[in-house]
Design brief:
By secondary structure, this protein is an alpha/beta fold. 32% of the residues lie in helices and 30% in strands. The strands form 6 sheets. Strands 14-12-15-17-26-25-24-21-22-27 form a 10-stranded mixed beta sheet. A 7-stranded parallel beta sheet has the order 3-2-4-1-7-8-9, with helices on both faces. Helix 5 crosses helix 6. The chain is elongated, with a radius of gyration of 23 Å. The N and C termini lie far apart (48 Å). 48% of the residues are buried.
Amino acid sequence: MRKIVLAGTSSDVGKITITIGLLKALTMKGLNVNAFKSGPDYIDPMFHSFVTHQKSINLDLYLMGETGVRHAFNKHSNGDISVVEGVMGLYDGVSKNGKEVSSTALLAKTIDAPVILIIDGSGVSTSAAAQVLGFDQFDKALDIAGVIVNKVHGERHYKLIKEPIEKFTGIKCLGYLSKNDEIALESQHLGLIPSEEVHALSRKIEILGKSIMKSVDLDALVALSERNAQEISNHYYEKISEKNYRLGIAKDKAFNFYYQDNLDYFNDQGIELVEFSPLKSECLPANIDGIYLGGGFPEKFAKKLSDNKKLIEAIKNYADQGGMIYGECGGLMYLSKGIIDFDGKKYPMTGILDIEVEMTNRLQHFGYVEVKNKSIAFRAHEFHRSKVINKNNKTTYKINKFSNPKEIWRGGYTYKNVLAGYPHVHFYSNFEFANLLINRIKQSKEV
C-alpha cells in the first residue's frame, strides 16, 4: 500500500494548499488517489473530493480510536496511493493525564506511514535545517521521509534551503511551491469556505497542480510512499438491522457536514440514504423512516431556509407524528424556533424544538468533548459560533470538555422521536449511539 502523511511544522505553513496541489498533480500523472484528513474537519475533505472525484475520509484518533482509524484507512485505501493531510503542527494535539491522543505524528505511526514535512521557507535558508532536524529528532519512532518547502521566492531561494537540510539532516527535499496570490484560498467565519463556493476553484487547482508537477519530484515522493506495507482489514462492526429502511438526509449548501463512515455505517445496516434539500425541496422524500440533518451553514442561508414554508411544514408534521429526526449542530439550528443572525434579525425555522439560536461573534464551544446521553457515553467534537437561547426544552446530554472534565454544560434536545445537539458524532466513537438512532428509525417505522 502506497501511503504518505503530509504534515506541517505549524498550522499556517500551507498544508491544504500543498495537499490540494499534490492531489491534483498525482491525478494528472494518472494515479487513482485516496485522500484523507486528520482530525474532525469537514471542509478540507471537500477540497480533496473536488480534486480526486471521490470521498475524502476523516481519520480522528480521539473520535475513532486506533482500531477505528486503521479500519477506515484500510477500507478506503483502494487506489494507487493514499495521501493524508495532517492537522495543525506535526506534534500538536490534545492530551489527557499526560497521554497524547490526537496529533498527526501519532496518526502517522498508527497507520505506519512515512511523513512528508511541509515547512515555511519565508525569510530563511540554513535555519530551515535546524527546524527540520529538531522535528526529526523529537520522536525517533516517527519516519520523516521527505520535506517540501512552501512560500519560497523561486528556485534559487529553494536551493539555499534544500542544500543545508539534506546536508545536516540526511532527509531528502522533494521540492517547493513559490508564493502565488492566484492560488490563495479564501476564508470565512468557520474556516475555509466549502469547495463549491470558492471562486474559480477549478482554475486555481489547475495552476496548483501544474506548479507542483514542475517543482516537486513526484516520482521520488511516490517511491517514499512505498516504504511500509499493511494488510487490509474489512471487518469491524456487526450488522444489527435485518430490515431495509429509508433515511432522508439533508444535502445542499446549508447542510453538508457528514462523516462518510457514518453514512457507510447506515448503508451497511441496510438503510438507504435518500437526499433532499432544505433549501429547494418542497416536500420530504417518499416513504422515509427517518431524517438526518447534519451540520453546515444554515445561518448563511437562513432567509431561504425560512422561506421554504412547504418543507418546514412537512418536517414539522413528520415530527408531530412521531417520525425519527436526528440533527447535529446546523441540524439543531434548523429544528429550533428560529435563527437570530449576526445582525440581530430573526428567521423562523421548523419550531420543532422549543428553543431559539443566536449567532455570536466568538466561538461558544470548540474542541473535543465527552457526552453522556442517558446510559450511552460517546466522544464528539463541537465547533460553533451560535448559542441556544430562550430554551424551554429539557436537555438530555451532559457534556464536558475532554481536556478539562470539570468544564461541564448541558445540551441535547428532544421532542417525541426527535434528538438534536451541537456535538458532531463519529459513530466509531461508540456504535451504541449509532444503534440508538437505528432503533429510533425502527420506532418511527412502527408509528
